[in-house]
Amino acid sequence: MDKLTIHPKFAEIEINGETLAILNVPFIQQPPQMLCLPYSVSMVIEFFKRTENPKLNIPKLDPEKLAKIMNSDPERGTVLSTTMIKKLNEETDPLEFLMYRGDLNKLDECFQEGKPPILIFNAMYYQTSNEGPAHATVFLGRTDTKIITNNPWMGEYFIYDLGKFMEAWEIEGYRMLIPRIRKTKNTKLDNFTKEEGED
Question: pLDDT tens, 86-134?
C-alpha cells in the first residue's frame, strides 16, 4: 500500500540569482472570469491537504464548488463578508479562514507559522495607478523590496514591487484571510481518556 506523502510547507525558488524560501502553495489558474477569491481559497486548501496530517480529513473542494459556496459571480466577483466566510468555514472544516486587517508584521507571522494568507488588493491601481476592482492573491513570501504570490490571474510565483503593492493593498483596507486548522474542543471521550490516565 502506498504511504501518503506529506509535503513540506516551504520550498525554495531563485529570483535574480538569489535563493528565497517561500510557502509551498500549489498553483491553480483561474479562468478569464472574476473568480480570483475562490481560486485563491482553492490553492490554500490544497496547500493544507498536502502539508497536514491526512487524518484531519480536510475536504477536497474544487474552485467551481467554492464559487457556489462563496456566492461568487463570474462577472462581478465575490463579496467578502463575515456571512460568506462563515458559510465557507462550514464547508472547509477543520480548516477555517479568519478576516484580518494586515500589515508586514502579520505577513511575516503567517510565513513563520506556515499559513499562506490570501491578500485582497487593488490590482488595477498596482498596474495603472487608477483604482479598479479588488483582486485576491495568495502570499508566498517576501524580501525587503519584493512580494511573491501565487496570483490566480497572473501566474505562479508572481513578483510585485513591495512598496507599490502596499499602496494597492491599502486601498482595499489591508484585508486578508488567514487560514488555520480549527482548534477542537474536548469531547467526552477525550475527558474520559484523560481521567483514565490520571490514576
Answer: 999 999 999 999 999 999 999 999 999 999 999 999 999 999 999 999 9
Q: Is residue 6 part of a domain?
A: no
Q: Does residue 5 belong to any structural domain of this protein?
A: no
Q: Given a cut of 70, is residue 196 above it in pLDDT?
A: no
For the stretch 59-68, contacts whose Cβ atoms lie closer than 8 Å and that sit 24 or more positions apart, written own/partner, are 59/91, 59/92, 59/93, 61/91, 61/92, 63/28, 63/30, 63/35, 63/38, 63/39, 64/38, 66/38, 66/39, 66/41, 66/42, 67/35, 67/38
Looking at the structure of the chain, the number of domains it has is 1
Distances, alpha carbon 94 to alpha carbons 48, 71, 111, 174, in Å: 10, 21, 20, 26
Rounded CA-CA distance 43/77 in Å is 17
Q: How confident is the model at residue 193 (pLDDT cuts 50, 70, 90)?
A: very low
Amino acid at 5: T
153, pLDDT greater than 90: yes
pLDDT higher than threshold 90 for residue 62: yes
CATH of the domain at 140: 3.90.70.10
Where do the DSSP E strands lie in the chain? Answer: 10-15, 18-23, 95-101, 118-122, 134-142, 146-151, 155-161, 175-181
